[in-house]
Amino acid sequence: MPTLEPAPARRLTWLRWGCTTALGLSLWCAGAALAFDLQGHRGARALAPENTLAGFERALAIGVSTLELDVVLSAEGVPVISHDTTPNPDITRDASGRWLQSRGQPFNTLTLAQIAEFDVGRIVPSSRYARDFPQQQAVDGERIPTLASLFELVRKLRADHVRFSIELKRNPERPHESPAPEAFVQAVMAVIQAHGMAGRSTLQSFDWSVLKAAQRLAPEMPLSFLTIQRPRSNNLESGVWSAGAQIARHKDAPAMVAAAGGRLWSPNFNDISQRLLERAREEGLRVIPWTVNETSDMERLIDWGVDGIITDHPDRLRAVMMRRGLALPPAVEPAQASQAPQAVRTATTH
């Protein structure tokens, strides 16, 4: 009997699962069983203000399959879109137009009216953030949107193909800045279900206690287990971030994710190797690494067989996919995007 060569890492995809469970997805979804998941990180962070409606419109105009975003809760318990549990001084101006000089009060202590006063349409020019993203085009007057307003915008633009990867931002080392996991999941799921987006959404978090709560409260929801294993940041080591689990008690990160009931693993792209991707396949996991901005890294990861990539540069990833002959998600033309009323773009009270 001839010796068989080992098969390359097999690419799985959310579309094969999502298209059979979600109602109302586009024909593109139904016909692209092997589509690669192009995720725009915080919209299109390298090109437009992060986690804003303007940024999400930019990502849609480029053409993404998934909008990646972050949510926290306001004092009223309303999900609003922010990467940080407190206002970020690198991107936040107050009602008088002055840059915040330090981290503000936690969002869960601020009302929607107070949150609506912040302008997050521009980076502080002297900041490292500005140096990291010199191509980002400011949109002065852009406000922190609610999760509901994003869903409404996507419906108005008829971007029926796009999915949402929603990160629930909770720091278990600063629990006073966030709601309890159960309350957090309930608040986010209420908005998702009210807008009919359960079949198009995935919940993700570095705090696995949030994912454990989601497994109990919304067992039908796809979940993404976020990981980072850097020398100065490791959410798998102590058990504080990973709901008590510790990497030392498992063979590797894929085994740890699988033991937690995960089906989708989203590691820092620096932490993954081809062998570790193969291990993820052995554990039955799909793999979508974050945040990949250089073309050479995108090429390598696609060669290895990842299921998608989260990137600040959806334009670069789309170009790579085009050269590779991968199926491209539809783009929402800028002319369509411009039809969205300004009231929707800045709303924070939906």
UniProtKB/TrEMBL annotation:
Residues 330-350 are annotated as: Disordered. Residues 36-321 form the GP-PDE domain. Residues 336-350 have a biased composition (Polar residues). Transmembrane segments: none annotated. GO terms for biological process: lipid metabolic process. GO terms for molecular function: phosphoric diester hydrolase activity. CDD domains: GDPD_SpGDE_like. This is Glycerophosphodiester phosphodiesterase. It comes from Hydrogenophaga crocea.
